[in-house]
Amino acid sequence: MEEGARSCLLQSRSSLEQDIRASYLMDHMISDGVLTGDEEDRIRSKPTRKEQAAALLELLLRKDNHAYISFYNALVRESYGDLASLLHNSLPLVSPEAEKSFSDGGTRYVQAVLSEGGVPQRPVVFVSRPALMNRVREKLYHLQKEPGWVTVFGMAGSGKSVLAAEAVRDHALITECFPGGVHWLSVGQLDRSDLLVRIQSLCFRLEQQSQEKDPSSSLHRPPGSLEEAKERLRFLMLRRYPRSLLILDDIWDSSVLKAFDIQCRVLLTTRDRSLADCVSGSKSEVAVESGLEEDQALEILALYVNGKPQRLPEQARSIVRECKGSPLVVSLIGALLREFPDRWAYYLHTLQQKKFKRIRKSSSYDYDALDQAMAASIQVLSEEHRERYIDLTVLEKDVKVPAKVLSVLWDLEPEEVEDVLQDFVNKSLLFRDCHHRPYLYYLHDLQLDFLAEMNRSGLEQRYSQGPPTSGDEECLYWFRFLTYHMAKELCSLMFSLDWVRTKAQIMGPAHLINDYVEYGAILDKEVRGQFQEFLSLNGHQLEQRPFPDVVQLALSQPDSSEVYRQALLQAQERATRGGLYLDWVNKSSLKSLSRLVVQPHQGSIYSACFSHDGTKIASCGSSKTLRVFKSTSGEKMLEIQAHDDEVLCCAFSPDDRLLATCSSDRKVKVWNVERGTLMRVFEDEHEEQVNHCQFTNTRRRLLLATCSNDKFMNTKLWNINKPSSQNTMFGHLEPVNHCCFSPDDAYLSTSSSDGTLKLWEVSSANEWKSIDVADMFSEQREQTEVMVKCSTWSAGGRTIICAARNAVFVSVEEYTHTQPVDYYTVPCTHMVAIALSNYYTIIRKKMADCSGHLSWVHGVQFSPDGSLLLSCSDDQTVRVWETKKVHTSSAVCLKRDSDVLFNNGDITVVAADNRNRLQVRNGRTGAVMFQSENQESRIRCTAICSQTSAVGLGREDGTIQVHTHTHTHCYLLTDLSRGAGTRGWDDTGTHTHTHTAICSQTSAVGLGREDGTIQVWRWRTGECVVLEGHKEQVRCFSLLTTTPSSETHLLSWSFDGTIKVWDMSSGERLQDLVCHQGAVLACDVSPDGQLFATTSADKTAKVWSSASWECVRLLTGHQDCVRSCRFSWDGRRLATGDDNGEIRLWNVKDGTLLKICSRDNKDAMDSLHGGWVTDLHFSPDNTVLLSTGGYIKWWNVEKGEALQTFYPTGANLKRIHVSPDFSTFVTIDNIGILYILKKVE
């Protein structure tokens, strides 16, 4: 017995034992030949009913599939319908040979009854559909006590006639329900005269059989009219053949069916489920699915060519998928292949090209060719409805639409449309999904292909005047498939930024990307690539709400791109009407390695993987969901609420038909990818969270490996057809973090928190080798535990690779990183991908640092051919990278602590790079003008002089350097460190510098330090003044100019919550203000120098008088740390920004709140601004406010509304530098990309 059936019996055992009477069921099972007399006697010898039931079930569990089916049928016959329903979904499939002996071989009596009644013989090629057959039999048993109707309905070629004949091929059914016999009448499309002939023939046959049984009865003359024929048939069925079954095959018309409304028992097959509404009596119905399961269809093809399903060519599976398992198409093609067994590719091509006339009759089916069978259904419609049905050509394969879509097309009320669609559904010309409200409608692929072929010219004509449009949300279909229906206008449509904006806003970017992939063959390759790249890399932004400005996003594309050209034209036109747009002028220096960026989940993504054919990607994470999407476009194919807790891993089976998931809820689940249904749950054996799961690599023997945080039984192997694990590996004493099969599935590697990597023989589950990775960290082992995070195999299986802490061990080679290694993968012998804290590298010979993720990377995987690399991260994105396009060396990136000089149209940017060099760049182009040698100590801060060519830097070892540059060279002017000439210098140790500023008037360099002191160096003379007083790190400082004589005053603020005012010349502390209960995070001086504002971690902001040194305004209301502030140029407003991304505008005069910016627009990162608000700037006319955080925003000051948003590649912008005319903006993101933004005019 199949595992699924056995498992179902075990799960339902208690309910069955409680209710069934074994003696009632055993009679049927003995008739079916699955139970012997001796077995019946042993069961009956049990003293109680419950013990008899238990004994029957125990015996049943030791038998085969036939016993399960016989037991199910017995439950149906004995009116245990509720118990039968428990077993229904696990009914096993039975092979044709076995089914013949089981169903046919009831008795000769069954064969004789069916033969006398004209029931067709079973087809030469036959595959059982037990679930459907049992549903029909269940309905027929309802006719045992009273007349009625059972309707078997479905689309053309779905196998209704074969199913009806097979349902009555049952000894118990005939003897118990229809002892009067079973009589078959093929009807079809008839007029009244033909119908009369058919009924005359049936009456003659019934009278002849009656005379053979009773010679005293006589034959009557044939009835002369339909009314007379109906009465004659009524007499025969009620008097001569009481309790008999009349099967009416292929009924088309209700007027025909009324001729058989004679109060008898009727089973009818039809394409129109509503036909039985016109007759009297009890009614029930069985819907026949339009397609066979793939295994069943392949079995039919194998029988036609005298082969085995597993040995059929790959085209066989493609044929089945192309026709969705249609029994008619499979049978027609199978019969043709019997004569021409080498034409697999030809018939597949014929089917794909919709040449239905070439799939011609080679069986007993009523129509000569496939197209005739489908056309017959349409011809019976009224003329009006026929035209409406042909209009359904606009539908797309596998897409379900509500009635409102066709309401737009037909210009009818939705209720009228539903009435028309109901007629189509009744006639099996259309399918309806009743699980949604409103109902969704769809066509079978064959129906749609037939309509498209028949109505191709009409379709093009319909859309020549433009598409139907509607703003209704349920009419999104037109936006999704407009490209399909306007093929002639495809290029101008798809290469329009306006169309991109409209469709992306309504449908999302994935559908657009899919359009470029699907219609790529007829589009200009270069322009298509530009639009596709734009959408692929910005898709995660286009998923955000409020919807971003597509023109602004497109301005970040290369200057040579058609996307950029259109965006620039639109930006320039809108700028004349007051619009604000920014051009990223130095973007040409940046090369992106990403091919696709997708945001499939709201929350961290812990795992993502390619399917083995490379066409799909599955991902999962903290959202508790599993999502499958196309690897080319990111279009969602499946989304499942998979677990009750975070989903930690997902994995495809070798044939890509199954997906396994594991979770913190301690469960392992296996899903059907195509249907999205749950196939198996393993929930009882792991007692802690399950960290990782993986299928075997080959289809030879399918196993699933899982590992968990369990103390001992933490690694298991599962056969997915069995309810419990097949093997448990014992050996690890701490949680196992990762498991991985070798390429040939002979071994399983496991990585554990106990510091070991173990290799296991899969066949025996015995430990083969153990590697103590912790010994490789002998110097550090005593300090902290060594956790082996993950392991993988080389493509040939000869090398095992593992990661622990910041090291990767490849055979005997060791690669060390400064950041913890989280995950890695190997597609072939020359590449290894390693996930680090916020980027990952591809090594063996280091090829690239692939920066882009904004947070911890949890997993990486190569595509099967190694051309793509997949990564997933806490930043909620999945990225796909092209390995052939990676840089040959690591890209130089800049640190965020920078300074910028705007001078007479020239822009100079100074910052440290990731190789610890000081760089000076041209702010117009981003080109490097000068760079220093590598510094011995880390550069912590930089500054540039506003009037000379001096550049200063502070190092981690406490050293200060001042450089001067010309257009061709950069010179070291002075190296300021501890020594002579300093006043108040503490010569005990070194202290890291945290902030640097250069004063051009005094030739001084000021540096804040972590120890709370500030150094003021006269860099021309080397003299130093040390300002001491802060108790914690100096956050920043600024010159305070209130009078001409105060130009040497310095204002500093610190994490100790104080503000201090200093005389830079003497080092004297002029003022010491305790401002806040928490750290002072920002300070700004008003343009006239009369006020200054402070913000703090205590969630408040304060305004202070520079004359009285008292607090004049306390500003409360922020819900998080207030991190930034800025006075407007007229001194009337103060802007403050907090760590929740909220910006507040205050009236400085009275402290009232004027506006709150970003109140209702939280983004996917759960912040109003994509992160902390770190910097603020007003425009010179005080009408626009600029803010930085996760991205850059410009605001209308009067309205508090966003004017524009620029999304950087990275995040966490620290500060932004603004030109005096508010036209140029310079900043650096957290992955080191320099942005020089220029207003479009």
UniProtKB/TrEMBL annotation:
This is Apoptotic protease-activating factor 1. It is found in: Cytoplasm. Monomer. Oligomerizes upon binding of cytochrome c and dATP. CDD domains: WD40. GO terms for molecular function: ADP binding; ATP binding. WD repeats lie at residues 640-681, 729-770, 850-891, 1027-1072, 1073-1114, 1115-1156. Keywords: Apoptosis, ATP-binding, Cytoplasm, Nucleotide-binding, Repeat, WD repeat. One of its GO terms (cellular component) is apoptosome. It holds the Pfam family WHD_APAF1. It comes from the Eukaryota. The keyword Repeat applies. GO terms for biological process: apoptotic signaling pathway; regulation of apoptotic process. Its main location: cytoplasm. Residues 1-90 form the CARD domain.
